[in-house]
Amino acid sequence: MKSLLASWQFWALLSACFAALTAIFAKVGVENVNSDFATFVRTIVILGALGGILLASGQWQASGSVSGRTYLFLLLSGLATGASWLCYFRALKLGDAARVAPLDKLSVVLVAAFGVLVLGEKLSAANWLGVVMIAGGVILLTVRL
Question: Which whole-number Å values give the CA distances from 80 to 58, 72, 122, in the listed order?
């Protein structure tokens, strides 16, 4: 069990499961409310839950223990997350969850491209084939034929 908890694959699969539940719960949740307000409520819930986890597990860090560069990139990541959530909830308000969520996962393709272009990461031919297949899957899942 300990090796499972130290596995990035385990946590990534859990993330995918929770992301799927997020789409379903959010689609129902935005039904009778403004999508931006729904995002606000979601954010408050996340802040409270995560703050409780940090305090309960003793993982809270003093603000001075984090570098300015780290704060800058966490700030940028937070702004990107907020923008993503606002757009995602608006899309769920307007479209089918079964089509919105796959299009949102085009982020996988973009992360691969940005990882190579910005971070200098390397992908094999098989990795690129997977990226192309994901992009193709997104198209098949989102286009009405």
Answer: 28, 12, 24
Query: Which residues have CB under 8 Å from 98's CB, separation 6+?
Result: 141
Q: Which of 45, 143, 23, 40 is nearest to 93 (CA)?
A: 23
User: pTM higher than 0.70, yes or no?
Assistant: yes
Two structure tokens written together for 25: 């719960």
Buried b (16+ CB within 10 A) or exposed e, 84-94: ebeebbbbbbe
Q: Residue 14: what pLDDT?
A: 92
87-140 pLDDT, tens digit per residue, is: 999 999 999 999 999 999 999 999 999 999 999 999 999 999 999 999 999 999
**Nearest C-alpha neighbor of 90 from the set 14, 10, 6, 27:** 27
